[in-house]
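Backbone-to-sequence.
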């Protein structure tokens, strides 16, 4: 664990992301390496406005990255966050299940959605909110969900928080100090979708597009989708199914 890590745990809040955003707007300095973790969230959110399940015994927490001169595009932090969750989960399960990443930042366990990541900009800060199903997974209408407890004994949320804080600190260091190609290569090595695999993408405008996975844009990690006519479409917001 990074020795500078500070983890504050609250029994209940609306949203750890919202709490950190409010603190930044009040001018309260938020140190990198500090995490706010909730035992229960009453207004947790996922990407594209989805509600995030807050089952008891799961991990729900947020941290802040202060953008510095020379930093990469803030959106690319989602790849670093996904890799951090991947590492913490693999450490927790010890090979009991298969952990994979799904663009843009989902962490999957044996084909089920295990984690959600939400990035929000506030001034020159990025708030990184992460939820991980440790003890239980929700019943979702449109996709399979998974929890660590499905494959092995689930760690306690505070124990997982320590592991995640350490892996996030390492991935943040790599994000800052290595080129973006390195980050995307490491993400793709753990990807659920191989090059050329058939995929269906629900883009940010609600359109459904079929094609094959053609990799990620080197400039920002956007999805490249090869269409049936051989052309490529670049998608910067959406979900793969």
């Amino acid at each position: 664990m990074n020795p500078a890590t500070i983890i504050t745990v609250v029994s209940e809040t609306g949203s750890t992301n919202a709490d950190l955003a409010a603190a930044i707007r009040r001018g309260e300095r938020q140190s990198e390496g500090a995490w706010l973790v909730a035992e229960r969230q009453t207004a947790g959110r996922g990407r594209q406005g989805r509600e995030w399940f807050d089952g008891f015994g799961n991990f729900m927490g947020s941290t802040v990255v202060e953008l510095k001169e020379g930093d990469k595009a803030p959106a690319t932090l989602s790849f670093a966050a996904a890799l951090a969750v991947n590492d913490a989960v693999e450490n927790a399960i010890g090979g009991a299940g298969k952990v994979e990443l799904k663009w843009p930042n989902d962490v999957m366990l044996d084909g089920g959605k295990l984690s959600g990541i939400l990035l929000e900009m506030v001034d020159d800060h990025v708030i990184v909110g992460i939820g991980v199903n440790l003890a239980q997974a929700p019943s979702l209408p449109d996709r399979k969900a998974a929890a660590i407890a499905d494959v092995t004994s689930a760690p306690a949320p505070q124990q997982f928080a320590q592991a995640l804080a350490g892996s996030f600190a390492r991935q943040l260091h790599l994000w800052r100090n290595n080129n973006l190609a390195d980050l995307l290569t490491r993400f793709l090595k753990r990807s659920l979708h191989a090059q050329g695999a058939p995929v269906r993408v629900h883009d940010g405008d609600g359109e459904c597009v079929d094609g094959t996975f053609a990799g990620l844009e080197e400039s920002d990690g956007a999805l490249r989708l090869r269409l049936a006519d051989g052309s490529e479409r670049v998608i910067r917001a959406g979900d793969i199914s």
